[in-house]
Amino acid sequence: MAATIPYPDRVHLQFARGWLELGCLGEAEKELGCLGPEAAGSSEGMEVRFQLLVKERRFSEALPVAWDQRRRFPGEVRWLMNVGNVLFWLGRADEAVDVVLPALEDNPGEAVLLYNLACYYVSLGDLPAAKRRLQDAMRAGDRRRVMRHALADDDLRALWPWIQSLDPGAGTSE
After folding, report:
1. Is 50 part of a structural domain of the chain?
2. Distance between CA atoms of 141 and 7, rounded to whole angstroms?
3. 146 vs 142: CA distance, rounded Å
4. For the segment 14-58, what is each residue's pLDDT rounded down to a tens digit?
5. Residue 112 has pLDDT above 50, yes or no
6. In this structure, are residues 81 and 116 in contact, taking their beta carbons and an 8 Å threshold?
7. What global pTM score does this model have?
8. Is residue 42 part of a domain?
């Protein structure tokens, strides 16, 4: 948490996050380069680094950061999501499934994990499994919101006709 990170690292981290949000990736990277080892290795520091690498599409560099997040901060779903997503973006959806699927035992109602699994299964060509996981995500989360998000997600394009058949108004705003 940022409150435990001392000055001036706290400020560099805030600036890095701000530059990242503004899309000034070079500036964000410079600010991250100013962090001391403790701040750089903090949960927040690692997440900003991960997000920067993802925005720069440097997925092979983001993967070790995601694994390190998972190892150093176990029990937080977002680190698991980072590992799964970066594997998926690297074209390793089968590995993403192998990482995320066992976590459902501890997080059975985590809609985002279920949704991501649906994306991974579509990529692998397993549409029945993708549909099951997306239905699970709809039950775990806000059904209409999940459907609207899915209908805007190119990773789930193969499911769009099926999703629309569930609720023809799902892709429209309320």
Report:
1. no
2. 39
3. 6
4. 999 999 999 999 999 999 999 999 999 999 999 999 999 999 999
5. yes
6. yes
7. 0.87
8. no
pLDDT higher than threshold 70 for residue 170: no
Do residues 164 and 151 make contact, with C-beta atoms less than 8 angstroms apart? yes
Terminal alpha carbon distance of the chain: 36
Quote the CA–CA distance of 44 and 5 in Å, as a whole number.
9
**Amino acid identity of 36?**
G
**Domain contains 38:** no
Total domains present in the chain = 1
114 is written with which tokens? 């279920």
Write the CATH number for 114: 1.25.40
Range of the domain at 137: 91-174
| Strand runs labelled E in 7-155 | none
Q: Does any domain span residue 23?
A: no
- Give the helix/strand (H/E) hosting 19: helix 9-22
Contact 52, 19 (CB under 8 A): no
Kindly write down the DSSP assignment for every residue of 38-104, as one continuous string: HHHTSHHHHHHHHHHHHHTT-HHHHHHHHHHHHHHSTT-HHHHHHHHHHHHHTT-HHHHHHHHGGGG
Residue 29, token pair as written in the block: 């990277």
Residue 139, number of CB atoms within 10 A of its CB? 12
